[in-house]
């Protein structure tokens, strides 16, 4: 009997403690707390409940909690109650509630069934936390983000964020939608695997890309590069610009933009071709010769090599003009230029300096091998036959050969070639003469 009395007292103590805990929770909870029975009839509320719902305590106590719902009969509160009662498990979700003044609010709600003692009915502890403002802010942020994404996808380029880790590994954290149009790649494939895009960079531009990124990562100067990518639709030119920032963990982040500049590049190349081409013959003009020639000279000088070159002048060209007219002279010039171009390698420089005077620079050719190349060219010109006014017109060319040494100047070498050309003319034309001091390998065999 005493044992039963002890158990009874222990149970009452537990219950008192539980109730005082619930009491404390009710008083101090910053949101709304309600205690209901299994039917949802409100038994107790905390002070916050009056404040948040706008209903005085006497208007709530004894009523069903569903009165707070926008749809009291079939709304979410009915479902929450049914769930807790049937399963004896908590329900959590966001409810749309109506305040006493008619305003709607979003409440983050938990319906917690309380363990019932023997003979006690099920009770539910309901806590509501007003998240209306939070949801509005999230909605606002979401709308803003959608608008921003719309703007990004309509930009005439692709926005990206690139990360380089402390060991130099690259990965893309973001790519806007236009990547499909720009590079025939989906943003996701590139974000999963940066190489999907990096491998498309044209082989001749990869080194420049790596070097420019490395330099920007070290100096934290903006990255700017024009480079080509190979796509299934063909070669495309891109312009990349990005601003780097270094983060505390040693990684570098670039926020940047990729623009397609293929048509601009094509126009530039077209203009470049126009300004560097001789209109009559289609070969390089004087200006382009000095640009390219200077680049060849600088490259050979760095490697300590000499470059053979020659001046060429058609023989008695004035007679052709005088006998057949200027247009036939033009035809002869075109045939001559085409023949010379065909005799040379694509990277040799052949240009028209003016009138019937041309120049050739033999790139990557040893001076002692130049004689044979130039004499083959002379012979090819001699073999040209032009059918003009019932006659077969033939032309010949004289050549003056010189060498541009690693430390020499292009102008000086040209003037030496010009002197040699004068000698070739003087010695009878249709021949090749060399400037003094030039290696004479093969000269005797050909003359
Ligand atoms: N048809 C044509 N003739 C040109 C052009 N440019 C220069 N000429 C002519 O080329 C001729 C060059 O004559 P010259 O400098 O006396 O030389 P040449 O008659 O070839 O005599 P040599 O060089 O001594 O063998 C001139 O009659 C120029 O008018 C051109 O674009 N078209």
Automatic annotation (TrEMBL):
Reactions catalysed, as given in the entry: 2 GTP = 3',3'-c-di-GMP + 2 diphosphate
GO molecular function: diguanylate cyclase activity
SMART domains linked: GGDEF (SM00267), PAS (SM00091)
SUPFAM superfamilies (alphabetical): Nucleotide cyclase, PYP-like sensor domain (PAS domain)
EC number: 2.7.7.65
Residue span, PAS domain: 18-63, 144-221
Cofactor section: Mg(2+)
Protein known as: diguanylate cyclase
């Amino acid at each position: 009997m005493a044992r039963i009395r002890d158990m009874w007292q222990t149970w009452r103590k537990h219950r008192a403690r539980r109730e005082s805990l619930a009491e404390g929770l009710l008083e101090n909870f910053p949101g709304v707390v309600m205690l209901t029975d299994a039917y949802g009839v409100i038994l107790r509320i905390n002070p916050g409940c009056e404040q948040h719902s706008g209903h005085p305590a006497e208007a709530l106590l004894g009523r069903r909690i569903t009165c707070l719902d926008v749809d009291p009969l079939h709304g979410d509160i009915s479902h929450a109650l049914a769930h807790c009662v049937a399963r004896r498990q908590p329900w959590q979700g966001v409810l749309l509630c109506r305040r006493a003044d008619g305003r709607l609010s979003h409440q983050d709600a938990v319906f917690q069934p309380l363990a019932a003692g023997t003979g006690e009915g099920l009770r539910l502890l309901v806590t509501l936390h007003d998240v209306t403002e939070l949801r509005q802010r999230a909605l606002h942020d979401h709308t803003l983000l959608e608008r921003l994404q719309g703007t990004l996808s309509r930009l005439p380029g692709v926005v990206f964020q690139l990360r380089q880790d402390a060991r130099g590994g690259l990965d893309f954290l973001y790519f806007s939608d236009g990547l499909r149009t720009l590079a025939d790649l989906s943003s996701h494939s590139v974000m999963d695997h940066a190489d999907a895009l990096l491998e498309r960079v044209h082989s001749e531009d990869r080194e420049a890309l790596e070097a420019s990124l490395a330099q920007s990562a070290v100096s934290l100067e903006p990255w700017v590069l024009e480079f080509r990518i190979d796509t299934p639709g063909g070669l495309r030119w891109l312009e990349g610009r990005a601003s780097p920032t270094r983060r505390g963990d040693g990684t570098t982040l670039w926020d940047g933009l990729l623009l397609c500049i293929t048509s601009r590049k094509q126009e530039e190349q077209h203009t470049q071709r126009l300004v560097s081409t001789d209109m009559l013959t289609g070969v390089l003009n004087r200006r382009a010769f000095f640009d390219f020639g200077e680049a060849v000279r600088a490259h050979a000088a760095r490697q300590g090599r000499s470059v053979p070159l020659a001046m060429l002048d058609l023989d008695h060209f004035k007679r052709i003009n005088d006998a057949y007219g200027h247009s036939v002279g033009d035809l002869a010039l075109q045939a001559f230029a085409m023949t010379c171009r065909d005799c040379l390698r694509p990277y040799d420089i052949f240009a028209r300096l003016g009138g019937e005077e041309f120049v050739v620079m033999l790139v990557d050719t040893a001076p002692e091998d130049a004689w044979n190349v130039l004499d083959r060219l002379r012979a090819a010109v001699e073999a040209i036959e032009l059918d003009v006014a019932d006659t077969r017109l033939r032309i010949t060319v004289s050549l003056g050969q010189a060498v541009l040494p690693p430390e020499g100047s292009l102008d000086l070498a040209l003037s030496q070639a010009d002197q040699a050309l004068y000698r070739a003319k003087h010695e009878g034309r249709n021949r090749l003469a060399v400037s003094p001091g030039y290696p004479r390998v093969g000269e005797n065999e050909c003359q």
